[in-house]
Amino acid sequence: MLGKTAVEVRADGVAVVTINNPPLNLLSADVILSLKESIEGALIRDDVKAIVITGSRGKFTAGFDVTAFGGTQGKKTKMELGFMSIQIVTDTLEAARKPFVASIEGPAFGGGLEIALACHARISTSSAQLGLTELQYGILPGLGGTQRLPRLVGLQKALEMILMSKRVDGKKARILSLVDAIAPADSFLKARAILKSARLEVQRQNPNVVHPLVCIDVIEQGIVSGPRKALWKEAEALQELRQSSTCRSLIHVFFAQRQIFKIPVMSKMNLLPRKIVKVAVVGGGLMSSEIATVLVLSNYQVILKETNKKHLIDTISRVKVLELFFLLGFSYNPYLTHPAESESLSLKQEIFSDLEKCCPLHCIFTSNISTFSVKLVGERTKSQHRIAGIHFFCLSPVMPLMEIVHTESTSPQVIVDLIDFGRKMRKTPIMVSDWKGYTVNSMLLTYLYVAVLLAQRGVDVYRIDQALKSFGMQVGPFRMIDMVGLQVFVVISKKFVESLPARSYKPQLVPILQQDNREGERSGKGFYNYDNCGKASPDPELSKYMKTTRDASNVTIDSELTKLCDSEMVEMILFPALNEACRMISNGVVIRSSDLDVASVLGMGFPAYRGGIIYWSDSFGSKYICSRLEKWSKEYGDFFRPCDYIRERSAKNISLTSETRQAKSQL
């Protein structure tokens, strides 16, 4: 029996049983017994999920060796007579609880086809030859073919094939439903390669989720064992996945995204958005060029206003699109104006006052205000009802979030217009109350600050990025800074530090990198090296900049931080961002806490399958989060100090996900 069949169990859980009796893989008592042993061995293995029967050298099996027919045979008992047909083919193969598939190439005649008929599914090449040829030798099919073939192809076709020993090719067999699918000769190898590649890609992109892998398993089940078995597996998998934490988290984010557009006091107004055609961007500079690029790509006519001709030309040159509509003033009547660069309160107030004089009454005034309240900036005007703030999240260009800052005076019509404006730019607009300093961006900046703090104290930059990527963030913090550009990060960071010094961290590493013209992805170097296609790779020279930073700031390598495991590192980097989110809830900046879950997913790249940063906090509890922040605060300063909201919730052991307090604006 040795060598008559071979078994290979693959990594995907499929056991391939190969009939190996060249040249035609003819059947005999020894081959059948060897096949029985191989099948039974595969059935008892826990790592085997499905079994494929095939033949070596491109030939399934041409049936029994005809030299066994016609000779004198002694009388057999009933059990002996049914040994092959009933005990092996029917009771072992057909009745198996694991799916069997016949992979047919070349001939499948007589007993060979009967073995295939007992399998749960059959796949063949188009050129394969199938037939029950026993009658041409004066006998009949003896391994169940007389029963199984009529049930598959119908009585009339079965009689034709059996009585005439008629052979059909794979294409005809598929039409007759004799086989379930036609595939190339190497179909299983190709299918396994494709499925393996899909699994690796899923594990690379989403290492913490299982439902895509389960989906691949179900698809594979259909390929291996036919659709019916796969449908049962699909139903069982669906029932299990519906109860998973991943499903609950993704459903939470799904509904939270739809809740964002539901503003309580506006629900009965039935206001329709007005059409915005032109947008004026006031002030040249880096932020202006970023905003202008987004607007032009969204098919808005853009007007750039800059008093300095050189600054205007520089701004235009930074706009990364071919078509840009601009004027050196306001010859057109814009529908929306957006002062982008200045952080001087008096200058902002002067700009808004001038805009009011020269713009039509339907024009909306917005600003990317960070240091001052929107109300304060517009207090010299008589148009506070059409003034709002907009943060385009240029700090995170791959994230589709837009923040709309409104005051008590901002009219509902303006809010409706700006929501529609954001959606047309393929952004998800989130409504926030007028609050001194950054709002949602404070979560992102804090997240980046802590990553830089750890790096300056000796934790490897690339290990930090990998830990956050493995957790599920779209990109690691340092890769994000490179994508944004170090100059943009410094500009926005400076404003945040000036506005909220007690809650910010001044990163000394970034300016040192800039001194060597390392500006991120656009310059080809930042924290990473970039090739001509923008592909990032670790830079071995980064270590010298880390040393220069530590020497300049008198900071030594912190051995406790370098020993952090990945999960501890993730907590230390993300809990301060959660702290900022809770501070916004406490101050009534957002309408509901789930708005910040959406903001963290779309503005930070937080994994949606974890439900957003507030929802995720429930996996730890307020007591644990508060204790960790307090510990780090003692060791590394007030930057980590938990806000009152977290302290209060921790003291009462209340979840951080409870509904937010009434928003300031009473929206």
Automatic annotation (TrEMBL):
<dbReference type="InterPro" id="IPR018376">
    <property type="entry name" value="Enoyl-CoA_hyd/isom_CS"/>
</dbReference>
<keyword id="KW-0276">Fatty acid metabolism</keyword>
<dbReference type="InterPro" id="IPR036291">
    <property type="entry name" value="NAD(P)-bd_dom_sf"/>
</dbReference>
<comment type="similarity">
    <text>Belongs to the enoyl-CoA hydratase/isomerase family.</text>
</comment>
<dbReference type="GO" id="GO:0004300">
    <property type="term" value="F:enoyl-CoA hydratase activity"/>
</dbReference>
<dbReference type="InterPro" id="IPR006176">
    <property type="entry name" value="3-OHacyl-CoA_DH_NAD-bd"/>
</dbReference>
<dbReference type="GO" id="GO:0005777">
    <property type="term" value="C:peroxisome"/>
</dbReference>
<dbReference type="GO" id="GO:0008692">
    <property type="term" value="F:3-hydroxybutyryl-CoA epimerase activity"/>
</dbReference>
<keyword id="KW-0560">Oxidoreductase</keyword>
<comment type="similarity">
    <text>In the N-terminal section; belongs to the enoyl-CoA hydratase/isomerase family.</text>
</comment>
<keyword id="KW-0520">NAD</keyword>
<dbReference type="InterPro" id="IPR001753">
    <property type="entry name" value="Enoyl-CoA_hydra/iso"/>
</dbReference>
<comment type="pathway">
    <text>Lipid metabolism; fatty acid beta-oxidation.</text>
</comment>
<protein>
    <submittedName>
        <fullName>Glyoxysomal fatty acid beta-oxidation multifunctional protein MFP-a</fullName>
    </submittedName>
</protein>
<dbReference type="InterPro" id="IPR008927">
    <property type="entry name" value="6-PGluconate_DH-like_C_sf"/>
</dbReference>
<feature type="domain" description="3-hydroxyacyl-CoA dehydrogenase C-terminal">
    <location>
        <begin position="437"/>
        <end position="530"/>
    </location>
</feature>
<keyword id="KW-0576">Peroxisome</keyword>
<dbReference type="GO" id="GO:0004165">
    <property type="term" value="F:delta(3)-delta(2)-enoyl-CoA isomerase activity"/>
</dbReference>
<dbReference type="GO" id="GO:0070403">
    <property type="term" value="F:NAD+ binding"/>
</dbReference>
<dbReference type="Pfam" id="PF00725">
    <property type="entry name" value="3HCDH"/>
</dbReference>
<dbReference type="InterPro" id="IPR006108">
    <property type="entry name" value="3HC_DH_C"/>
</dbReference>
<keyword id="KW-0413">Isomerase</keyword>
<feature type="domain" description="3-hydroxyacyl-CoA dehydrogenase NAD binding">
    <location>
        <begin position="278"/>
        <end position="318"/>
    </location>
</feature>
<dbReference type="Pfam" id="PF00378">
    <property type="entry name" value="ECH_1"/>
</dbReference>
<keyword id="KW-0511">Multifunctional enzyme</keyword>
<dbReference type="GO" id="GO:0006635">
    <property type="term" value="P:fatty acid beta-oxidation"/>
</dbReference>
<feature type="domain" description="3-hydroxyacyl-CoA dehydrogenase NAD binding">
    <location>
        <begin position="342"/>
        <end position="434"/>
    </location>
</feature>
<keyword id="KW-0456">Lyase</keyword>
<dbReference type="GO" id="GO:0003857">
    <property type="term" value="F:(3S)-3-hydroxyacyl-CoA dehydrogenase (NAD+) activity"/>
</dbReference>
<dbReference type="InterPro" id="IPR029045">
    <property type="entry name" value="ClpP/crotonase-like_dom_sf"/>
</dbReference>
<dbReference type="Pfam" id="PF02737">
    <property type="entry name" value="3HCDH_N"/>
</dbReference>
<keyword id="KW-0443">Lipid metabolism</keyword>
